[in-house]
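Quick one, tokens below. Sequence please?
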């Protein structure tokens, strides 16, 4: 019984680690895209008509 619990806890820990790494990578990627798009908007600020 204890061995099954140990294996379950181990697999949950590994999956949490993997999901954490994926979340960090996605966050960094989205942040970079947002910075680039913001810089492009600021660079072309004089072209906008309101």
């Amino acid at each position: 019984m204890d061995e099954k619990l140990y294996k379950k806890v181990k697999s949950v820990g590994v999956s949490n680690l993997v999901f954490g790494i994926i979340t960090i990578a996605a966050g960094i990627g989205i942040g970079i895209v947002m910075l680039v798009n913001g810089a492009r908007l600021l660079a072309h600020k004089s072209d906008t008509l309101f």
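The chain has a mean pLDDT of 92. The longest helix spans residues 2-43.
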